[in-house]
Amino acid sequence: MTEMAGRPGTSGGLVLRAGQFIFAAACICAMSSAPGFTNYTAFCYLIASMGLQALWSLGLACLDCYALILKRDLQQAFFMSLFVVGDWVTAILSFAAACSAGGVVVLFERDAYFCRRDPQLPCGRFEVATAFAFLSCACSAASALVVFWLLASL
Amino acid sequence: MTEMAGRPGTSGGLVLRAGQFIFAAACICAMSSAPGFTNYTAFCYLIASMGLQALWSLGLACLDCYALILKRDLQQAFFMSLFVVGDWVTAILSFAAACSAGGVVVLFERDAYFCRRDPQLPCGRFEVATAFAFLSCACSAASALVVFWLLASL
């Protein structure tokens, strides 16, 4: 069980962290380039939670690089507990933010027809940012499940 | 680890299942009593996912009762794998539905002031239904974590 792909301190783990960081950063860029996003709480919350996700993933990616270069083992109970707490908190916050932004985007697009009525509303950018947030969540969920499984089997 | 509170086939597990079912049913009642909820995709999705949650929790609660009355042990790899898949799918769907409904409720209440502008909109019921959905999710997340932990430590 301790040879799982994507565990911390391996190249698989580094790829997952890089994915989380890149998608979170892309989400922030797409959303912050959409004028007027600050009028909507769900989109502000998305930016905040993706910012936290990007910081956490960048930190863990650096730790993975350190472990890979110096061939250190990160699979100790202390590190695993820290990764589990951090990964689960960031994954849950990101998923909540992505879903609430998704709910608002669907409302704009399909339920209230805001996008058709107001062509100034940057619906395309809201959609792209929400899609990137879900991709970041998917990478984050994979990391969270791997570390939880590793902690449980320690 | 196999003596964890809330594991399937124990009274703790039954309490968690009962909580999931009661809150999911309360969410469905509150939302379906709100006129016009079918105009909003997020609220329709909330009803659908809470319906699935209620059915799954009721089934598992019956299985817990059976195990408690006949003193059967449900901690076998087959049952655990089944519980993990079902619990995680329902927990993730419910959480996504609760968050997207939450995003729409916040938009109605704070961002677009729909609730003030249109007193016919049953915002109070939307809020109550969303709160019940989050309570059901909390119980569901507890069950999902317990069974995942148990499967990992089998």
Automatic annotation (TrEMBL), chains A, B:
InterPro entries: CASP_dom, CASPL-5. It is found in: Cell membrane. It is a multi-pass membrane protein. Signal peptide: none annotated. Residues 7-139 form the Casparian strip membrane protein domain. Keywords: Cell membrane, Membrane, Transmembrane, Transmembrane helix. The keyword Cell membrane applies. It comes from the Eukaryota. One of its GO terms (cellular component) is plasma membrane. Pfam families: CASP_dom. The keyword NAD does not apply. The chain crosses the membrane at residues 21-48, 54-70, 82-108, 128-152. Homodimer and heterodimers. Belongs to the Casparian strip membrane proteins (CASP) family. This is CASP-like protein. It comes from Urochloa decumbens.
